[in-house]
Design goal:
Length: 379
Amino acid sequence: MIPEQVFNQLDRLPAHPTYLYDLDGLEKHVQKVKTALGKVEVLYAAKANPDPRILQAVFPHVDGFEVASGGELSHVHQHFPQASLAFGGPAKLTSDLKLALEKGIQRIHVESPAELQKLALLARELQCTAHVLLRANLNLKIEGVPLAMGGRPSPFGMDETLLESCLPILKQHPELHCHGIHAHLASGLKDAETHLHLLSGVMDWFRGFISQHRLDWQELNLGGGMGVDYQTRKPYDWHTLGEGLHQVKDLKLRIEPGRSLVASCGYYATPILDIKSSHGETFVIVQGGTHHFRTPAAQNHSHPFQIKPMHAPEVQNCTVNVVGQLCTPKDRLSTAVQVQGAAVGDWVVFPLAGGYAWNISHTAFLMHPEPNFVYLQNL
């Protein structure tokens, strides 16, 4: 489960929670995705993991980055001023929009008529053009996904009535140049065929909308949502998605994957501090926990792991729960997992920790030390 080069690094590390990022593996994966998608533009959603070394590994193999706050915009632009950026998010500050215009951000994803009006006034004030996509919340059937962002009442995007109310604003303001629609409707879609069916519905709607309103838009950003299967570790089928999207000749398509690009490159490794029984169950207590690695809590799952033995086993062939240091029963990383052996001082290594892991964790709670970071490259 855990690559040998990751396990080998643990012999050289101090006994402290550590993230290990396989940058070589990350680059190979992103190259494979880009090859499968061909002409479809790929923007990495920086919110999944904005670590500068991660961004640096991804940058040569994508068409740009998607950012979702003024902070992310400043961070990514600082490290990659030449990168093409798309700026989304449901509630942008006036200062964020102004910053985006001043930096010449390539696309701003507008979430409401009020935001569009605000952007127009700022663009007029700065004597520049705002290049936008309107974010749509379409009335499409979305089922069986962990996180639905559209197809229902939602703060994200605009239904068709609100989209139509943006059209007069666009006509009134030459400072605004609308290129098309952004439609990220769901996250966690593990089956590429199901995902492609949803995206086909979005494309059909888009064609109908621009035809009805006689618009010359061609750009459609389909968002992200490609899922990661934490239990089976079965990879998302990029080839199937690419084959389906290659059939589209009349639209300029973009996607914004995040987790599905970087999750597999990351590993969270942490030493075992204690092992004890309680009411018939065995608890492996590790240094660290959800304040470093919030993915299991955020996904509400038992995260897979592998133990690297460092000592003679104290327990063998038993079922364990892996928990962290925090003063809350919610600090649980894995539940009821069979292990061959475990001892205090062994390493517990969690794969698929490259996205929505460290950067979404509540690190300030109880003020434990932060983890270390190791970047594996050119090994």
